[in-house]
SDR family oxidoreductase (Salipiger mangrovisoli), 254 residues
Amino acid sequence: MIALPTPPSLDLKGKRALVTGASSGIGQGCAVSLAAAGAHVTCAARGADRLAETVDAMTRTGYAAKALVLDQNDLGALEPVLMDGAFDIVVNSAGLARHTPALDTTPEDYDAVMSVNLRSAYFLSAWAAKAMIAAEKPGSIIHISSQMGHVGGLDRAVYCASKHGLEGMVKAMAIEWGKSNVRINTVAPTFIRTPLSQPTFDNPERAAWIMEKIKLPRPGEVEDIMGAVLYLASGASAMVTGTSLLIDGGWTAG
Ligand SMILES: NC(=O)c1ccc[n+]([C@@H]2O[C@H](COP(=O)([O-])OP(=O)(O)OC[C@H]3O[C@@H](n4cnc5c(N)ncnc54)[C@H](OP(=O)(O)O)[C@@H]3O)[C@@H](O)[C@H]2O)c1
């Protein structure tokens, strides 16, 4: 009998994962996806109550999860989370949007968006990789970017700047860490129904824009992101680094 190629495994048993922004929306979906594949998931966010509800529901379902109250804009609090024992998988879904026309953006809006979407993402990546490299562990770092990291969008100059910055950062970090088997990628969703995007869905003009640009007949749901994150976290994507997996229903196709 000839030897067949080994099929890919999505099994994450024995893996330690950190998911930021895990108390809501996409991050919550990522936490559930990794835990359902067998990982022990540390779920991080600022608000303790919503986080406790998520972790409670996960553990009652039989998943291995614990809560970590963290404001990742506080880099002094973020560093020890990454450096005290390397994670195998880090998913960064914490993020913020302040959508205004570029002419109306205030420095305060700019700083608020950049601080969590890019500054914290930068140091989270660096410290996660530092710990993985020191522990000689292969690792996977995944940022939830956006289709707005690939194209422009209405009222989104700061948000687009933060997500395009994230995409560039990931490419450069992948070059540095590939030889240590630390992979870093982004998932770039289209509009997904979450508390963050609800104001856009509630605006009829913007809702029409969404359905005009997405080629498939519906907007995205959190479940649409869960498979992409599982793929990038697992050995099934062992040769994938420095790239972006667009889950955009064809938005950027034209
Ligand atoms: N929804 C979409 O249509 C869409 C599309 C493309 C990309 N994305 C991206 O996907 C990511 C998640 O978005 P979402 O739609 O899931 O938003 P969401 O439902 O508002 O969830 C955001 C999560 O991030 C946490 N968070 C925010 N600031 C934080 C901070 N400083 N420190 C720690 N945690 C913080 C929030 O919890 P606390 O407030 O309690 O901290 C919450 O758990 C974001 O990066 C967003 O840009 C979303």
Notes: Residues 20-21, 23-27, 45-47, 50, 70-73, 93-96, 116, 144, 146, 189, 191-192, 194-197 surround NAP (CB under 6 Å). Strands lie at 16-20, 40-45, 65-69, 89-92, 139-144, 182-189, 244-247.
